[in-house]
Design a protein that fits this description.
mainly alpha, 382 residues, 12 helices
């Protein structure tokens, strides 16, 4: 009997190793297939994401604004009103973004492209002034006299590409709008009958996967749901707080482009880890176009703000709910970003945190079982 169990374990290990080797050998094809799958089912995935995000608001409205329904009719009415109010809240958020945030973001990008040549010139003059202290930088700028021209030409080439391919851009915009509309419709259906869909999904799993697999699937999805929900709420709040603090600090200390840099910093804060550096680089060059001294002071200010954000804001807002060590955060972002781009970067942390939590729990359970077995053996020896 023991031999058969060992044989089953060996077979499982061989199968797992074989699958891993197959994935490694066919990784390009797998990534291409997944990207195509995401493109085909983009409306469905968008609808699921909108429904997941709005479900947080729907649950809040149902529990805080409406009494517990005692009839099916009241439940339907309350659910419909909650969905309607959640979409109103989403619409207000979009209006705020389009009226306040996005124009500033566009202005910041436009200003950034205009100030690059002047910023490079300022940096070159600064390095020439202090050539004895930083000869390497001066040597680099002297060897690249056309650096600002190269950057400007590359930016102009991008703008020219967008204008010359306006038909393709318009088609892409139309396709995106269609995807968004279909996604909204799908999300409404999901939110309206989420309990029914959950029940049907549970019956499906129970029928085709069995009770043991059903428990494992629920265990994984409950952890993923907990971490993703905490991550979305925490990361969004953190980005808003970081943007407001950055804007206020830059304005108080008299830095140029305070609002623009604050918006860029807050918006880039949605990207874990790398977002702060992206916002910092853009802000540095914008300030550098006005004054090299202020650009250095801006880096000092941003460094202090990042320390406050990392040690005070992030632990309080996001807390330890994600529970992923820093090194794994960086690795997950690099890997997911390399395969799936910006979407991969954004969702890399909650996915990696889910895998990390499951593995950690499994190891803890195994160790506890080992301790219990050793205690049983010791008590039997007595």
């Amino acid at each position: 009997m023991e031999i058969k169990k060992n044989e089953k374990k060996v077979i499982k290990i061989v199968i797992i190793i074989g699958i891993m080797l197959l994935i490694v050998n066919k990784i390009d094809s797998i990534v291409m297939f997944l990207n195509k799958l995401v493109g085909v089912f983009s409306s469905v995935f968008l609808g699921l994401f909108i429904a997941y995000f709005l479900n947080i608001i729907v649950r809040f409205i149902e529990t805080k604004l409406f009494p517990k329904p005692n009839t099916k009719r009241k439940k339907t009415i309350y659910r419909g009103l909650s969905i309607f109010l959640s979409f109103i809240a989403l619409f207000i958020l979009i209006v705020v973004l389009t009226r306040l945030v996005i124009p500033e973001l566009i202005n910041a990008i436009s200003t950034f492209t205009k100030v690059i040549p002047k910023a490079i010139e300022q940096l070159s003059d600064f390095s020439s002034k202090y050539s004895e202290q930083i000869p390497t930088i001066e040597k680099y700028f002297k060897s690249r006299p056309d650096l600002s021209t190269t950057i400007t030409n590359n930016i102009d080439a991008i703008i020219k590409y967008l204008t010359t391919n306006s038909v393709g851009v318009i088609g892409s915009v139309f396709g995106t709008l269609t995807t968004i509309v279909m996604g909204i419709i799908i999300s409404i259906y999901i939110l309206a009958d989420k309990e029914g869909l959950k029940h049907k999904f549970a019956r499906l799993i129970h029928r085709y996967f069995g009770k043991k697999a059903e428990n494992k699937i629920y265990y994984v999805t409950s952890i993923a749901n907990e971490l993703l929900r905490a991550y979305l709420i925490g990361q969004s709040l953190e980005a808003v707080i970081l943007g407001v603090l950055c804007t206020a600090g830059l304005y108080i200390f008299g830095f140029p482009y305070a609002i623009m840099i604050g918006v860029v910093t807050g918006f880039s804060g949605l990207i874990p880890v790398l977002g702060a550096y992206i916002g910092g680089i853009i802000g540095f060059f914008m300030v550098l176009s006005k004054s090299p001294t202020q650009a250095v002071l801006f880096l000092v200010f941003l460094l202090i703000l990042q320390q406050i954000e990392g040690n005070v804001i992030y632990p309080k807002v996001v807390g330890d709910s994600v529970g992923l060590p820093g090194i794994w955060v960086v690795i997950s972002i690099i890997v997911a970003g390399g395969f799936f781009g910006l979407i991969g970067i954004f969702f890399s942390v909650p996915i990696a945190a889910t895998v990390y939590r499951i593995i950690t729990n499994d190891i803890h359970k195994f160790e506890q079982q080992q301790i219990a077995n050793e205690q049983n053996v010791y008590s039997n020896l007595k």
